[in-house]
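Ticket 4471: requesting a sanity check on a complex prediction with 4-methylsulfanyl-2-ureido-butyric acid. Repro inputs:
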Amino acid sequence: MSRALTIAAAQLGPIARDETRERVVARLLELLREAAGRGAELVVFPELALTTFFPRWDLDDDELLTFFEREMPSDATRPLFDVAAELGVGFHLGYAELTPDGHRYNSAVVVERDGRVVARYRKVHLPGHEEPEGWRPFQHLERKHFEPGPDGFHATRAFGGVIGVALCNDRRWSETYRVFGLQGVELLLVGYNTPLHYPPDPSQDHLQAFHNNLVMASGAYQNGMFIVGVAKSGVEEGVELLADSQIIGPSGEVMARAVGSGDELVIAVCDLDLCNRYKQTVFDFQRYRRPSMYGLITAPHAPAGYD
Ligand code: CDT
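Returned C-alpha cells:
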C-alpha cells in the first residue's frame, strides 16, 4: 500500500510594503482553492508569506511591528484556516511571529487537513547582518529584526508520514537535513525569500538557482526525504527574488518545478513510502553511519590548529 500525498507548492509573486493582510490572504485563498480543485492535500506557502520581505529595510519599531502576527490564526488569517478545513486541505504558512512576552521570530505553522495546528517552527539560521550597512543596495537585517529560534528542529507525525519544517537560509546547512533525517523525516517543507543579488559576493548572483537546487536535492537524497522548496519570487520593492519553487523526491530528482516568477502552483504526488528505498539501503543510518567520527560537527568551536 502506498502513502501517496498530493502536495502543492504555492509560490507567491511579490507583496508590496503597504499591502494589507486581508488582500494577501485573499491571494492565498485563491491558490488554496485552486490547489484543492487539483487534488492537493497539502498546500505549502513560502517564508514570510503574509508580508513583503521587510528585513530589506532598517525600520523603526512602530513600522517593524506592523509586519508581525501577535496570534495565529488572527482575525485576518482565520479565513485561511476556515476554508482549508472546509476543503479538507492542510497547509504550511511562514510568518513573522511576535510572542506575548515580546520575542520576535521568523516562524512557520503547519495545519492538518482537519484544521489542527500540528507543528510550529522558528527559524534557526538567521542570515545577513545585525546593523544597517550603507554600502548595500538593500539590507538583509534578519539578525536585527528576529531572534534565532530557540527550539531547534523537531519532526512531527502528520499527513500520514513524518514531516519537518525549515526556513530559507536553513536549507543551505547540511546539519538541518541530517537532524531531520535522524528523526526519520520523510517530507521537509522549506519556504524561502532569496534575493538574486548577494551584495557581499556578487559573483554568486548567477548561481542562486543552481545553489537552491544543489542544497535541497542533496539534502533530499542523503536523507531519503521529499523536499518542497517554495519561493516568494519576482521583483518585490525593487529587489529581484529567486523563483524556481520545486518538489524534489528522495532520489534527489526534481518532480515538479515553477516556470514563472508570480503566483503559481507546483504540484506533485509524493508517495512517502519511496523514502524507504533510500533510508533502508544506501542511507541505512543504523548500519552505516559512524557518529563517533563526527564529533567536530557538534563541537562549539574547531579545536586549536583547525582555525
Ligand atoms: N530569507 C533568507 O534566509 N534569505 C537568504 C538570503 C541570502 S543570505 C543574505 C537565503 O539564504 O536565501
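Notes from triage: The CA atoms of residues 213 and 247 lie 10 Å apart. Leaving this open until the requester confirms.
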